[in-house]
Hints:
By secondary structure, the protein is an alpha/beta fold. 38% of the residues lie in helices and 24% in strands. It contains 15 helices and 17 strands. It has two domains: 3-60 and 361-412, Urease, subunit C, domain 1 (Roll); 62-349, Metal-dependent hydrolases (TIM Barrel, Alpha-Beta Barrel), CATH 3.20.20.140. The strands form three sheets. The chain has an eight-stranded mixed β-sheet with strand order 3-2-1-4-14-15-16-17, with helices on one face. Strands 5, 6, 7, 8 and 9 form a five-stranded parallel β-sheet that branches.
Amino acid sequence: MDLVIDGKWLYYPHSGKLITDGRIIVEGDRIVYSGQRKSPESVKQSGHEYYNYEKGLIIPGLVNAHTHIPMTLQRGISENKPLQTWLEYIWSIEPHLRPKDAYWGSMLGIAEMFASGTVGFNDQYFYSDQIAQAVHETGIKAVLAPSIFFTGNPESNTMEEAFNHAKSVHDKWNGDNNRLWISFGPHAPYTVGKDWLQTIADEARDRGTTIHTHLNETEYEVNESQKTHSLRPIEYMEKIGVLDTINSAAHCVHLSDGEYEILKKYNVNALHCPKSNAKIGTGVADTPRFLKEGINICLATDGQASNNKLDMFEEMSFEALIQKAFHKDSTVVTSTDVVKMTTSNASALFPQNSYSGTLLENTRADLIVLDLDSPATTPVIDPVSHLCYAIGRDNVVMTVVDGSIVYHEGKFMTLDIEKIKDEAQRVTDRLLETTKSE
Length: 438
C-alpha cells in the first residue's frame, strides 16, 4: 500500500524534533519521505492513497515492551493483593487455559493495542504458538518469548517439556513475515534453576536469539536471592554466566549500585512497568538513575491482570507523574524522555532495521496519527507535552504497521472485533466457573 499522510505536526522522538505542516509518504513497507508538506496536487497524480488531518500529530507507532498478552482474559480477575498472593491466585487459574483460549485473548489484546496506537509488543507467556498465529493474522509486530517454567504452566508439566516447546516455536515462527521473532522466556531466577538457566542461555546463543526474563521486581525476591545465593538476582545471573543473552529484563525495581553497573555492562534493556508495579505495590523503579547511567529503558504495561489496560499513553503519563512525585522533583523525567521509552528506545528489542521508532526516511513504516481536534487537547501549545499529559487512546485515528493501515477511525482492518469480544467473554466465563468449582 502506498500512502501520503499529511498532518499539522510531525514528531521525531529520537531527536526531539517537531515540525509543522508535515508529510509522510509510504511506499510498500518503507517511509520514503518524511518532512515538510508539498503540494497535494502532486500526491493525487502519483496515485497514492491520500489522508489529510488538519490537526493531526504524526508520531512513530508505540511499542509495549513487556506483556503477557492472553491475560486480557484475566482483566480485573484479582485485585488489591500483594504480588506473591496475586501470583498464587493467577497460577491457580492458568492451568485451565486452553490453546484456543490464548488465541482469542491474544486477538483481543492486539485489537486493544491497535486502537491505542501500539504497533508492536514484547511478550513472555504460555501458548506462544497461538499468540504467534494471532500476530501472523493481524499484522502487528512482536517478539515472543515462550515462558519456560512449570508452575501453573497449562502446556508443560516439566522444565524439559517447556524448553522443548520453546524450541519448536522458534523453529516454526522466527522471522515470520519479517514481523515476528522468537526469543526464550525463563520466567525468573526464583522459578528456574541454575542448570536450566545456563542450558537456555546456551540454546539462545546457538540460535542467535535472546532471553526475556523478570528481574528484581520485589524486595521479597531480592531478599530470597540473597538468602539462597548470597547474591542479589542480577549479581547471581552474572555469576552463572547468562546475562550476555538477556536482552529484556522486566521490572528492575529494586537494584543496588552494582546492579546498575552490571546491566550497563551487558547492554540489558530494562522493561519498566510503572502502573503494574504501583498496582501490585512492588515499588517504583528509579528511572532517573537508568537515564543517568545510560541504560536503555522501555515502557510497558505488564499483563492485564496487574494493569487492566494496554494503554501506552496512560503508561507514559503515569510514569512521568509518579517519578516527579517519588523524587519530589518535577524535572527528573520529561515528556521527551517517556515518548522515547515507548518508541526509539524500544527499537533495541527488535532485530536491526525491523522497527526504528523514528519516522526517518528508509525505515519501516510504523506510525500513528493522533487527531488533536478534541476538547481535551485544545488548545495546542506544546504537542509533545500533550503526548505525555493530555492525549489518550481516543485520539488515535490511524495505526500503520509496515505500511499497512490496520486501524482507521474506529475500524479494524485485519480482525473481526465483535467475534473476538464474544469469544473472549465466553472463555473468561468458563475460566471463572472452572476455578470456582474446584
